[in-house]
Amino acid sequence: MADTTWRDQLQPASFRGVPFFVDSDSQSVGRRTQVHEYPQRDKPFVEDLGRKTRIPKLAAFVVGDDCFVKRDDLLKALDQPGPGELIHPWFGRMTVTATDCDVSHERREGGVVRFDLTFVEDGEKGFPAGVPNTSKQLEESSETLLESALSRYKAAMAIVNRARLSVAALQNSIAGVQMLIQREFASLIGLVGSVEALADMLINAPGNFSAMFRAQFARFGQSYTGSSTKPYNSGYSNSGSGSGSSGGAVGSGGAVSGAVVEADPLFMQTVAKLADTEPGFTSFVESRRDVTSKLEAARTLTAAAVADSVASSAAGGLATVAVVKAARELVRDMLLVHAVRTSAAMPVVLPPAALPAVPSLEQQVALPIARPEVPAADEIIALRDAACEALWGAALAAPHEHFTQLESVRKQLQTHLTQVARSGVRLVQVTPKQSLPALVLAYQRFGDASRAQEIVTRNRVKHPGFLPPAVLQVAQE
Fold first, then answer.
1. Amino acid 258: pLDDT
2. CATH 3.10.350 location in the chain
3. Which residue from 116, 147, 377, 442 lies 20 to 30 Å from 468 (Cα-Cα)?
């Protein structure tokens, strides 16, 4: 079998299926560049801007007794809008768009019509596409959950006959709640610094208890202020009559009629002076630690609620049990809202670009590399699963309306943290053969000595100068 020659590889030229002949062709190739020249330098810096656009130019013709018919067919193909398929004699199939083309006739070349064809290769359409802001969606869902939790607490406390509360039983039951508030909401210690203070608030001013939590969460960046003289009641609407911060009228049957669950204006002035603890993002490590702490506290309250539902409710009376249940569920929901908003503040970041060259260690000491923090995908996925589990556990015992809000938040949380994890890096296991500084391992693995603290923090190394010769978790890239 004879070897294939260049003549055998030529292809009959056509555009949109209309054939023609080609005498010669030309095409721009190479790279687009920008030359930067500097004073006192003999050599310039050449910036690469990408490959040049392919612009095939063909000197074509059609010939024959029916040359006018062939000419008109080719003109019709050239006049059609949009890209079409060009069969190039030397380059083969190409998707191009016809641009500046000329047609000419010459009397001495009877039966021949010549074309100067110019095409431009077709590229990808880079139209902008809408991308959902999962962080904003999750924040909006958390706000709805917050209002639902406050309304649920208000409805539960409005029907409680607080005249029949057992103070001793209430204090014993809410001791764990007070400890969690003191640990997780440090700014509220001055208001509920003891079990006695918390019990007094729940008995005499239940509206203050919910209002101080509402003040901890600014509504989409708007801080809580006490400049207004109108009492802030967290969006509550009181169906009955009566006023005051400590309860309502007691009917002849012992039930509370038209109970008011509203914050005291003087108390709200005090709350307005507290520091705003609206969750924000500082680092993935700090956010993950904060969310984990809130989720553990929420699971503790969920477990306590399940235990109370199994145990007898005789101790302290039904009124005491109802108050404890309402307070516990409100604190648990506030912990979940805080965890959700902290998760919403986690950004979806792009992985840092690979370094074009590895600077020397001396250069990195003098000028550290500035690289954005990228989360570890495995850690974010574990956090996502734990948060979804906590929200689902709270939803199992919730009424239908509140269950709907918890489920909506859970789905939005799963979507957002999945996006955050997708932008992260995977962790791999590395075992040094001998003890070495974290600075050395970071330079060996990433060419970036500034990432030494990342290795130390993730593996909880006691001293950054002595990494143990054991299995270490480091980023894949």
1. 39
2. 426-477
3. 377
In this predicted structure, what is the pLDDT of residue 355?
Answer: 60
Phi, psi values for residue 264, rounded to 5°: -75, 130
State residue 183 phi and psi, 5-degree precision.
-85, -40
> Range with the lowest mean pLDDT among 144-158, 305-319, 435-449?
305-319
State how beta strands 18-19 and 14-15 pair: antiparallel
Amino acid at 429: Q
Residue 116: other Cβ atoms inside 10 A:
13
Model confidence at 223: pLDDT above 70: no
17 Rama sector, left if φ>0, alpha if ψ -120 to 50, beta otherwise: left
Whether 349 and 376 have beta carbons less than 8 Å apart is answered as no
- 3-class SS at 195? helix
Pairing of strands 112-121, 56-63: antiparallel
pLDDT attached to residue 241: 33
Contact status, residue 442 vs residue 454, Cβ threshold 8 Å = yes
How far, CA to CA in Å, does 58 sit from each of 25, 96, 120? 4, 13, 12
Q: What is the mean pLDDT of the chain?
A: 80
Q: Quick: pLDDT tens for 356-380.
A: 666 666 666 667 666 667 788 888 9
| pLDDT classification of 436: cutoffs 50, 70, 90 | confident
CA–CA gap between residue 266 and residue 199 (Å, rounded):
19
Could you tell me the pTM of the whole model?
A: 0.63
CATH topology of domain 426-477: Membrane-bound Lytic Murein Transglycosylase D; Chain A (3.10.350)
Residue type, 166: S
CA distances (Å), origin 463, targets 286, 427, 450, 460, 466? 20, 21, 16, 9, 6
Strands 56-63 and 45-51: unpaired
Task: Choose which CATH entry (2.20.25.90, 2.40.30.200, 1.10.10.10, 3.30.300.180) describes domain 6-121.
Answer: 2.40.30.200
Closest by Cα among 194, 322, 212, 313 to 264: 212
Q: For the segment 37-54, what is each residue's pLDDT rounded down to a tens digit?
A: 999 899 999 999 988 999
Give the separation between CA 341 and CA 346, rounded to whole angstroms.
9
Numbered ranges of CATH 2.40.30.200 in the chain: 6-121
Q: C-alpha angle 447/452/453, rounded to 5°?
A: 145
CA-to-CA separations, 10 to 7, 26, 118, 272, in angstroms, rounded: 5, 16, 20, 82
The Cβ of residue 238 has, within 10 Å, a number of other Cβ atoms equal to: 17
Dihedral in degrees, nearest 10, Cα atoms 402, 406, 412, 413: 150
- Please state, as a whole number, how many other Cβ atoms lie within 10 Å of the Cβ of residue 272: 16
User: What is the C-alpha separation between 301 and 334, in angstroms, rounded?
Assistant: 11
